[in-house]
Amino acid sequence: MVTGGFGLFIVLMLAIGTGLFFWLRSREGRRQASGQTSLATWRLVIASVFGLVALFAGGCSLLFVPDALKGNQYVDPVAILILGGIPFAIATLIVWLSLRRGNG
Predict the structure, then answer these.
(1) How far is 7 from 97, CA to CA, in rounded Å?
(2) Which of 50, 60, 46 is nearest to 9 (CA)?
């Protein structure tokens, strides 16, 4: 059974992801209305999902950076960069690739 706090977190993630998708979709609708090409829906879904990964991986890592800079013995800066920085960088790259347009 899902507890109340975790269920709220899942609902919040779904709401943010859905909002991000509809924002990207409306942006593509404006591009299409002005006569430009629009991206496929699956690319917008991928950008939304990995945008959430980047947001939460980078955001959670940023919470620990001040303690790491102060020299807290329980927070290792290298661990923060590995556990939060690498997923953030990969997710950001995937978002960039999915929203990138060709030269044509």
Answers:
(1) 31
(2) 60
Determine the distance from the C-alpha atom of residue 54 to the mean position of all C-alpha atoms in its chain, rounded to a whole number. Answer: 3
Give CA angle at 66 (20, 71), nearest 5°.
Answer: 150
pLDDT, position 93: 92
Are 72 and 21 a contacting pair, CB within 8 Å? Answer: no
DSSP string, 36-96: -----HHHHHHHHHHHHHHHHHHHHHHHHHHHHHHT-TT--HHHHIIIIIHHHHHHHHHHH
d(CA 95, CA 21): 12
pLDDT at 83: 83
Residues 60-88 have a mean pLDDT of: 80
Tokens (6 digits) for 69: 């800079």
Q: What is the largest CA-CA distance in the chain?
A: 57
The tokens for 95 are: 């978002």
